[in-house]
Amino acid sequence: MSSQPHAPTLDQIAIFLAIVETGSFAAAARKLGRATSVISYGITNLENQLGMRLFTRAGSRRPELTEAGRAILSDTRGIAIALDALLAKARGLTAGLEAEVSLVVDVMLPANRLVKALEEFRARYPTVALRLEVEGLGAVTQKVLNGEAAFGISGPLDLENDLLVRGPAGAVKMIPVAAPGHPLAQLPGPIDANAARDHIQLVLSDRSALTAGRDFGVLSVKSWRLGDLGAKHALLLAGLGWGNMPKFMVRDEIKRGRLVELNIEAPGDMVYALHSVYRSAHPPGPAGTWLMERLALGAPSQSGTRYR
User: Fold this and answer.
1) Hey, which of 17, 85, 208, 295 would disulfide with 142, CB 3.0 to 4.6 Å?
2) What are the respective helix, strand and coil percentages of the chain, to the nearest 5?
3) Distance from CA of residue 269 to its chain's centroid?
């Protein structure tokens, strides 16, 4: 055997793994559609290339892995898996499949809908990489316009732009909430809108230029503007103000008594409209289109007072 190991061929790796999987040279030959002598010759050459015995043959009907053979088995399988992934990606690219899908979603998009769609995406397109960002309000559409994402699932945005194609993606119900100790939570019966205006409202602000200076669902003349929904959530729990939150996000806290839904008089339910958006000149590829449609598929449609 050679004193210095040399790189094996992919065919030798396939022979080695076939023997391990099937348990014999003859079975490996059948699996690979080769003669048994070719399998034996191939594994002997592999052992010579690496400078070590991989199987014990004498005194046994079935070839057994040596200690060295067991040591390199996982690495060899890793090479085979990587090669399969490379070939699968190459087949996808030649068929027009993207190498990567980039998307940006609104922070109000229900997490369970996003997770379910991504689980199905991974199973359907295992070779396609994913780049996901989460933004709020106009920042979603801004990233799509800038070419930073192939498509987005955006919140409400009244923007007429020939560069964009938009489609419905459902809506999220918003409810006003406050901590149990907040003055508004102590008021009996329906709360007059004028009473709510006298208290600090926590408002999610837009980090993009598309809707700079615009208000979404703001009722109070006193407001604290926050760029992060998680920070708004934390301040609500701390009793530092009241604000509108997605119902799905605060449902458990209301049940546990950590937040209270405020019965503020309004003409109808508040819903946060969602829609898909992509650049008309650069539509997403097959995988991106599938994911965009899947995120919008089955999204609940709710009537009421929509954010503008």
Assistant:
1) 208
2) 40, 20, 40
3) 30
Distance CA 45, CA 161 (A): 65
Closest CA to 284 of 157, 139, 97, 120: 97
Q: What's the token pair of residue 159?
A: 């923007």
Residue in 160, 38, 275 with CA at minimum distance from that of residue 28: 38
Judged by phi (left if over 0) then psi (alpha if -120 to 50, else beta), residue 289 lies in alpha
User: Which phi and psi angles does 13 have, rounded to 5°?
Assistant: -65, -40
Q: How far apart are CA 217 and CA 213, in angstroms?
A: 13
Quick check: 46 and 15 in contact, CB under 8 A?
yes
Phi, psi of 302 (to 5 degrees): -125, 140
* Cα–Cα distance for residue pair 18/113, rounded to 1 Å: 41
CA-to-CA dists, residue 32 to 23, 57, 275, angstroms: 13, 20, 51
Return the residue matching tokens 């991989």: 54
Of 271, 275, 272, 245, residue with least CA distance to 260: 245
Beta-strand relationship, 164-178 and 243-246: antiparallel
List beta partners, residue 164.
279
What's CA 267's distance to the chain center, in Å? 36
| CA–CA dist 36, 18 (Å, integer) | 12
Helix axes 111-124, 286-296, angle to 10 degrees: 150
Give the gyration radius of the chain's Cα atoms.
30
At 186-240, the pLDDT tens digits run 887 788 777 888 888 888 876 666 555 555 556 556 778 877 788 888 999 988 8
Q: What is the pLDDT of residue 91?
A: 61
